[in-house]
Design brief:
The chain is an alpha/beta fold and about 450 residues long. It is built from 13 helices and 14 strands. It has a single domain, classed as Alkaline Phosphatase, subunit A, CATH 3.40.720.
Length: about 450
């Protein structure tokens, strides 16, 4: 075979063949992605040391550098789930919310986790609202396109008592969240309102060039004068073409779109919550990698997450009750045997899903361009606002340090929101990096350990 041989297929499609004596490693296309921020919220706090319960969340080693080997080997701690990404992480402990809730700890925490603002006096209880905008909104309106809104997603059932808690346009103005990732994909990527027949035509038009030379490919691979190595080189060559097309086209594959569409039928099925989360992550990854949005949130479960997770093959009681350690949504009830361990295993489920998101961003060469943050609107089972986890991945193009574990010793959460906002390009009123987000009474500044 000569270097200049080609395959010619339908509609004039031409694919040049490689040297069959060897082929260089698959080409990767770097994502030209502007800095972005994605915030993922788990509810009900995490299982960390409190009231005699063992520590199962934070790394065993004290604050300092992280390595994949040590974090992965720390198998008794939930954050070991992210061991493969240790060099991309900034694990931030010791963050607190500055203001008390107003009648409902879950609502008050949700009011503050991305706003660092006070909780409303009226409305109160589970209807309380934030008195400021959220950081995703600030990022979108300041560094996004004109009129851009952050992407606001929700995985799991809604219960009506306390649903969306995360994204605020302004004081008292909470943003509704979208549960169906397929609807969002159609809207963001120009398919809204397109019927089934039109979608099929579009799918056919978007076929890979590989599909157009399929018959020739099969015929070529069947030749007896090609060695097994030559055939392997050919397969890698066509895979590289598909990868290149995928990076350039900013669209999910046909199978990924089918998977996204299939999840519509299980949005209310608690046993499928992990699948639903992953489809949201698929959507988020392509949205950020393609620069469609500069900020997004994903809320997992309602405000007091009532999801009945599958743990060890068994569907459990609602997570909210497990977080209370009793079979009740209130203060009294029968103890749930092993509830602290169940809580820990749910933490691992959420972190496993977050790891999947990091894998998708890494595969799209986009993780280093942005910051993704896994956080909570509570610290632990007692509805505490002290010690709320903020787990960051990505450096926003080198703006932040990674590969470290930091204990702030009680810093208010406006400081970490400033740090993230400034890293992706937000400014204060003087044009300097954002250092005054949140309530005006809070001390300005950053989490200095994260600054480059």
């Amino acid at each position: 075979m000569k270097r200049r041989n080609v395959l010619r297929g339908a509609f004039g499609a031409v694919v040049a063949l490689p040297f069959l004596e060897g082929l260089a490693p698959k080409r990767r296309v770097a994502a030209a992605t502007a800095p972005f921020a994605v915030f993922v919220r788990q509810g009900n706090g995490v299982q960390q040391a409190v009231d005699g319960e063992p520590e199962r969340y934070w790394p065993s080693a004290g604050p300092g550098p992280l390595s994949s080997a040590t974090l992965s080997a720390d198998s008794g701690r939930a954050l070991s789930e992210l061991g493969a990404f240790a060099d991309k992480l900034a694990i931030v402990r010791g963050i607190r919310f500055a203001f008390p809730g107003n009648g409902c700890g879950h609502s008050g925490g949700g009011n503050q986790v991305l706003t660092a603002a006070r909780v409303s006096v009226d409305p109160a209880g589970n209807e309380s609202l934030s008195m400021g905008e959220s950081i995703d909104n600030r990022i979108s309106r300041e560094v996004g396109a004109d009129g851009e809104e952050p992407l606001t997603l929700y995985a799991g059932r809604k219960f009506g008592y306390l649903d969306e808690v995360l994204s605020y346009r302004a004081a008292l103005d909470i943003r509704g969240a979208e549960r169906d990732p397929f609807n969002v994909y159609q809207d963001l990527f120009g398919l809204a309102g397109v019927g089934e027949e039109e979608l099929e035509k579009l799918r056919l038009r978007r076929k890979s060039v590989n599909d157009l030379v399929r018959e020739e490919m099969v015929s070529l691979r069947s030749r007896t004068d090609l060695s097994a190595a030559d055939k392997q080189h050919l397969d890698r060559h066509f895979d590289a073409i598909r990868d290149l097309e995928q990076n350039l086209s900013c669209e999910l594959s046909d199978q990924e779109v089918l998977d996204l569409n299939a999840v519509v039928a299980v949005l209310d099925d608690d046993s499928m919550i992990e699948t639903v989360m992953r489809r949201h992550y698929d959507l988020l990854a392509i949205t950020m990698a393609c620069g469609v949005k500069r900020a997004a949130t994903l809320q997992i479960g309602c405000g007091n997450d009532q999801t009945q997770y599958i743990v060890d093959g068994v569907q459990q009681l609602p997570f909210h009750k497990i977080s209370h350690r009793i079979n009740s949504d209130g203060d009294t009830g029968d103890p749930i045997p092993g509830a602290d361990l169940l809580h820990h295993k749910i933490d691992r489920i959420v972190l496993s899903g977050f790891r999947y998101f990091l894998e998708r961003l890494e595969a799209a060469d986009a993780l280093d361009s942005g910051i993704v943050c896994l956080t909570n609107d509570l610290s632990n089972k007692w509805h505490s606002y002290d010690g709320v986890p903020y787990i960051l991945a990505g450096s926003a193009g080198g703006a932040l340090k990674t590969g470290l574990y930091v204990d702030t010793g009680g810093a208010t959460n406006n400081l970490i929101l400033n740090t993230i906002g400034a890293a992706v390009g937000c400014k204060n009123d003087s044009g300097a990096p954002l250092d005054d987000f949140g309530d005006s009474s809070l001390e300005k500044g950053f989490i200095n350990e994260l600054l480059v």
